[in-house]
Write a sequence for this structure.
């Protein structure tokens, strides 16, 4: 995660083509485990030999992580609201740690300032301990065409219109998404498994989901050649990716953003000094 600028997904490292090799290394030596197919031509930077192939079902994922300083996501947001803290960008900061420790002392629990399963149960939040591992199901068969997968991905994103913006969030819808959490779940819905990019890693301190999706084994092409279903990215003035969205065609996108009040469709964001359109779009299907 990174400091909020008003339009953030899970933050990212420098994302220009020339930085790509370093960029991948900084993600902690991600080992792509999804099924792959060899493309007709290698990705432009020559780092990847294959693209990710759709799957019939997502692999098992274990949830129920103890959350502590630096974590983000729906679980953090639920704890903060239960403790009457309102929204603190769903980031587990010092104030959240202090509030949790105070609750633990009142409840007769060890005052660690971390939310483990005992603390979660005592808080009586109303959601399961494993809510952090929620994922949508794959909704396309292996025989689906790229066009069908694109429409499924877009359907999922648009079906969550009105969901809140939640920093580090990846659903379910009533608990909110940030921009990369929305895209990750939409890709899952269409049958794409990007392990080791998972909803659990999305919430962890320092994991840069938008950057990891940008670097995943998918086709890159000039943003001027974008078409419906491509993924678009924006960076800050330092070249760090700070936002992403799904392109709908005709100059429109679907995204989750702070400025847009959560998940919404809108016109493409212009490139500015503080929010620069990345030169590449990513094409997950086709």
């Amino acid at each position: 995660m990174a400091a909020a600028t008003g339009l953030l997904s899970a933050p990212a490292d420098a994302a220009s083509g020339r930085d790509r090799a370093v960029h991948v290394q900084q993600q902690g030596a991600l080992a792509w485990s999804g099924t792959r197919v060899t493309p007709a031509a290698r990705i432009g930077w020559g780092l990847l030999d294959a693209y990710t192939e759709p799957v019939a079902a997502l692999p098992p994922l274990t949830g129920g992580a103890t959350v502590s300083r630096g974590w983000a996501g729906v679980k953090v947001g639920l704890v903060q609201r239960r403790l009457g803290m309102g929204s603190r960008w769903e980031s587990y900061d010092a104030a959240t740690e202090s509030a949790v420790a105070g609750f633990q002392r009142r409840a007769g629990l060890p005052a660690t300032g971390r939310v483990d399963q005992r603390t979660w149960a005592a808080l009586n939040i109303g959601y399961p301990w494993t809510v952090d591992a929620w994922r949508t199901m794959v909704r396309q068969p292996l025989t689906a065409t790229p066009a069908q997968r694109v429409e499924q991905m877009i359907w999922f994103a648009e079906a969550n219109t009105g969901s809140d913006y939640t920093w580090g969030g990846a659903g379910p819808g009533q608990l909110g998404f940030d921009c990369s959490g929305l895209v990750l779940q939409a890709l899952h819905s269409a049958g794409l498994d990007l392990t080791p990019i998972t909803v659990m890693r999305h919430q962890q301190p320092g994991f840069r989901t938008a950057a990891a999706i940008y670097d995943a084994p998918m086709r890159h092409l000039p943003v001027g050649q974008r078409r419906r279903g491509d993924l678009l990215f924006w960076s800050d003035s330092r070249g760090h990716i700070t936002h992403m969205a799904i392109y709908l065609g005709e100059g429109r996108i679907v995204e989750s953003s702070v400025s847009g009040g959560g998940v919404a469709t809108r016109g493409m964001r212009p490139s500015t000094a503080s929010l620069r359109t990345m030169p590449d779009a990513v094409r997950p299907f086709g």
User: Anything to note?
Assistant: The chain has two domains: 17-61+135-283, 74-127. Strands lie at 36-37, 51-52, 219-222, 231-235, 241-249, 252-257, 262-267, 276-277, 280-283. Residues 78 and 127 are 9 Å apart (CA to CA).
